[in-house]
Amino acid sequence: MMKSQxxxxxxxxxxxxxxxxYATQMLSDMGADVIKVEAPGGDPLRSLxxxxxxxxxxxxxxxxxxxxxxxxxxxxxxxxxxxxxxxIRQTDVLVESYRPGVLDRLGFGNDxxxxxxxxxxxxxxxxxxxxxxxxxxxxxxxNYVAMSGGLHMTGPKDRPQAAFPPIxxxxxxxxxxxxxxxxxxxxxxxxxxxxxxxxxxxxxxxxQTFGLIQQGLSEQTANVTAEQQSNVLSEHALGGxxxxxxxxxxxxxxxxxxxxxxxxxxxxxxxxxQRFWENFCTAVNHPEWIERQLDPLPQKELIAELEKMFLExxxxxxxxxxxxxDCCYHPVLEYAxxxxxxxxxxxxxxDRDPDTDTFLGVRFPVMEEGRPADKRNPMCxxxxxxxxxxxx
Length: 392
Description:
The strands form three sheets. A seven-stranded parallel sheet has the order 6-5-4-1-2-3-12, sandwiched between helices. A three-stranded antiparallel sheet has the order 7-8-9, covered by helices on one side. The chain has a two-stranded antiparallel ribbon with strand order 10-11. It has 16 helices and twelve strands. The chain is α/β, with parallel strands linked by helices. The relative contact order is 0.12. It has helices spanning about 20-30, 60-65, 80-90, 100-105, 110-115, 140-150, 165-190, 200-205, 210-220, 235-240, 275-285, 300-310, 315-320, 335-340, 340-345, 385-390; strands spanning about 10-15, 35-40, 70, 95, 120-125, 195-200, 255-260, 265-270, 330, 350, 360, 380.
């Protein structure tokens, strides 16, 4: 049923690495027919292994492009140009991640594309966008998060730390899919395509609303004395400039924290609401902590007490003690645990080869009418002739 949502729509993917291909994979998961066009040398992701940092064919390219047909076309050759023009005329959506200006130099700028297919939705996904002083600057996930202010707020107190997985890449992919779906709906009434400029840096800035509100309120209350400010957690968080490892949501509160257990593993606690914190304190036999939830941030002493307590038992022991307590508790899972974790297993999110137990990918994370998304077909390499025949 999931495959029926975008059935009949054709998507031409001229992107590389992770963001664009992940976006078109989501479109494929919803039923779109996706052909991915790569240069003769292939997508650089084919030879990138971000786990070992070694060169050589890795599994990442095939997994993020599962469900698609992949063709290599030389856009600088006459035959390649003709093939690409044909595919442009047949497609509903073009997703590309070239640096601004590259398609223009190849003869496929937005005006040229509109002449070939005025109904096509053209989505240009880039790091910093198609306009502005940084439009041509190279970058990757860590740079886009850095521009947004989000990196400044992430990590321990002494230094920022990049998040994992690459959050801007995935956020940019999701923003791309949302924009394309809206454009296709708009085309129903207008009959015309549209040019979409999606920047991963922009997307990350749009995610910083909480921090920007806090900063703005901090500037407004700069002259208010400490005695005039309430110790209520939410008000305290809004009363000072946001800092890494100090505020409620990034390491300053005992109730919203990651703690290590005796066996070197970790648990997460997110008991922000008073009732959840009370339930937690009662369950661990420390009722004296209940009223200390409102201690000024950062709560170094209270955090230290909880750290000491959690180090007394293994993660499994804490699971047994807290998994049924209504207190926003969850163990910090390691990748090896995901496939067999009851919630993940029940929702059939992870696909593995039943014969070799090889990881095949994570399914499209939407259930429809109680059913999980279908398994993807493996990535299929095709020739330019087969690409033309596929959309003839």
